[in-house]
């Protein structure tokens, strides 16, 4: 995995709006668990990539330090050879003095080569250090977010479940609202009222029939009395006599 790739992934995850992701999730609990898994996986990948980057940086730094150390060593050899040449030349031994001067020149050339290699490595080391610092910062940001998710997981899940329970209670209360004629209880009450009305109707019909029967009985008694009086008249008796 390239440094640019892992840095891009880290930046994206660190800048991710977790709250927005949770708001759009159908199941916040599953969403949180998935986020924790994703962050854990990406943190593991980032740690591997950063470890490799740091390892490469340390190799570059070691090579740089070695170039600087070697350049200084060649500088010391050049100084020693030059000093020896001056000493021999002072003693009249110009032939050997020239040899040591030549050795000093070789040493100086090696010093220059090592210094150039060290100088050429400096921009690469600086860039590598900058990338490593960004990767470390991003990794720390991911770790902070992961810790926040893990710390608040129980709280968020509890809030989600509480909200779900509240919605269920609200729906249940609405379904048994006695003032709601469309609710089950309202329909049941309306059915009872109709049955009560039917009973009252039947009672009124029964009462009406009973009154009619009593009226017929009174009419029958009146007719009977008339017939009795008529019979008495025909017999030459008065109704009063009949009553006696």
Automatic annotation (TrEMBL):
InterPro entries named among the record's database cross-references: PspA_VIPP1
Domain of life: Bacteria
Keywords: Coiled coil
Regions annotated as coiled coil: 43-91, 139-166
One Pfam family per UniProt: PspA_IM30
Entry keyword Repeat: no
Family: Belongs to the PspA/Vipp/IM30 family.
Name listed for the protein in its UniProt record: PspA/IM30 family protein
Organism: Leucobacter alluvii
């Amino acid at each position: 995995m390239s440094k640019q790739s892992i840095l891009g992934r880290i930046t994206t995850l660190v800048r991710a709006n977790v709250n927005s992701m949770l708001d759009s999730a159908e199941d916040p609990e599953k969403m949180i668990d998935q986020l924790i898994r994703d962050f854990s996986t990406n943190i593991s990948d980032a740690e591997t990539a950063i470890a490799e980057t740091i390892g490469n940086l340390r190799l570059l730094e070691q090579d740089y330090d070695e170039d600087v150390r070697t350049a200084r060593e060649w500088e010391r050899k050049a100084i020693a050879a030059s000093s020896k040449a001056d000493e021999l030349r002072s003693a009249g031994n110009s032939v050997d003095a020239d040899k040591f001067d030549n050795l000093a020149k070789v040493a100086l050339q090696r010093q220059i080569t090592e210094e150039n290699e060290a100088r050429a490595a400096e921009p690469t080391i600086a860039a590598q250090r900058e990338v490593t610092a960004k990767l470390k910062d991003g990794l720390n940001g991911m770790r902070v977010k992961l810790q926040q998710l893990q710390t608040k997981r129980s709280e968020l899940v509890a809030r989600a479940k509480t909200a779900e329970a509240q919605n269920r209670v609200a729906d249940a209360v609405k379904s048994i609202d006695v003032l709601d004629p469309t609710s089950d209880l309202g329909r049941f009450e309306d059915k009872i009222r109709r049955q009560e009305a039917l009973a009252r109707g039947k009672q009124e019909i029964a009462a009406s029939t009973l009154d009619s029967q009593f009226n017929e009985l009174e009419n029958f008694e009146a007719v009977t009395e008339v017939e009795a009086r008529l019979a008495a008249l025909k017999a030459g008796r008065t109704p009063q006599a009949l009553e006696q």
